[in-house]
Amino acid sequence: MADRPNIVLIFSDQHRGDALGCVGNTAVRTPNLDALASEGVIFRNCNTSSPLCMPARASLITGQHVNEHGAWGNRSEADPRGPSHVRNIRTAGYCTAVVGKTHFRVHQADDGHTRDHASELHAWGYEFAHETKDTIPSATHSCYYADFLAQQGKLQVYEDCARVFRRGQNGGFLRPWEHVPSLLEEDEHIDMYIANRASDWIRGYADDRPFYLQVCLMGPHPPFDAPARFRDMFEPQEMPPAILQAPAEPVSPQVRRMFSRRGLDGMTESQSRTMTSHYYAKVAFDDHAIGVVLRSLEEKALMDNTWIVYTSDHGEMLGDHLLCQKSLFYEGALRIPLIVRPPGGTQPWMANGLTDHHDISTTLLDAADAAPLETSHGVSLVPKIEAGADSPCAQSGKDMVMSEVNAYSMVRIEQYKMTIDSVTRQPLELYDMEADPDELRNLVDDPRLSDVRDRFLKVHFSRMLENLNEPQLKIYQDGGIPTNLHGEYPEY
To answer: What pLDDT, on the 0 to 100 scale, is given for residue 487?
Structure first.
């Protein structure tokens, strides 16, 4: 095996940043991620570049803000011929591989098999790709996981469960506390399938080059369908309560729209705790799958020569402000986990400064000694990790981070968080995160904070939106790439 370090990025879907044992959550169970953190650094204030799948993933791979690559929602795509940290790492001499969900492309009803789109992933820089989908398989829309289930004689079981989740028993959308456990065997669940295929790839790797492997899980994204034994680990009454206050007036158009689509008005505290128990069960199950991947690295004696990074695309509202899902800039959807374990491990510590997806991309490039992206908003975390917990820079972070979705932009600094309409630049939300960490008071119209609003607009947003991709924005405003897949919700 090459002397240069391998890199493994374990990338989950919809894991909120506080749902980890290693950050002090005593209700959730994440022993494998906690063990990873015991030999690495936890970045406690990592923020997604977008609280939605496709925009977040496009920003992670390109190093660009959403307004630059232009994939504003799940109906618009970034250009695979554009910048890619994966391509740069491949050019630096690495074998680049991905197993699991990529979601760079708008799903279509006649998409064909994921193998039909391998050339697009190659364009992004992946040498090996084993892509799965999180949508209902059909004769014209399938993937390797559907092939596996068909061989097991379980494809119909999966399709039936997926349709019930998407549409409910009587045509209505299942509420999150109504999600049922998976009816598949544990090793047949899609996240275990991804973990097992990634582990097989690691065990079989025999190239002289170092590798960069992305293991992209589907969970804990809904459905919260962990197998029954993981459900049995959690009692609803022991779950932490959600923030059960409705969104603060004045309610922004972004929040109002999501409340109309994903609002949980009338949800009881008991239902909220049940939903959390189901979500934590899915987190625990995914932690179990991550353990399978980590053990394959141990079996191959690769832990001393491998960077391991764990993070997610975005969080989950989980009942906070009577909302579920994402596409909002509340902390539940915005904050994501970030654990970085260097080769051989290090003394564990926690960094509290602001960081984001762009820093992750830059860190991966630095770890591979690869060329930086031409346009990058990231800062490598490698020097901070190597300097250790006692270094002067240990608790420093970015002055600000940005997140965007659906033509809304948010900038967070240490004390304040502000949201605007990306096109009109109208201020929509302003929260004092020190005085109001639960975001219960929208201060956007408070005259005492006019200087704060003006500084955000003139300094932060002006700089962050200076390279806005107008053609891509127009595509998004015109409806993006249409999707008619089984009548599913395109923003899901």
So the answer is: 34
